[in-house]
Sequence to fold (67 residues):
Amino acid sequence: MLQLESKVKKHIPSAVFVDGRLVSPLPTIKVGHRVVTFPNYVELAFIRYDFKTVIEAMKNKKIILNL
Fold:
């Protein structure tokens, strides 16, 4: 997880991690018909989508990632 933390910090210096989990900024993630903001879903988003796509979703809140 430290590798993910260093990659995200490189692109978003203001990113906040607690115990290796991303706390802020969280991308908008939609599961089914619900918008979720849990850190567990962020890890799934990095697995399903390209790294750059998730980073752009963190920067631009208009982008919604569907899981």
Q: What stands out?
A: DSSP finds three helices and five strands in the chain. The chain has a mean pLDDT of 86. The longest strand covers residues 21-24. The two ends are 21 Å apart (CA to CA).
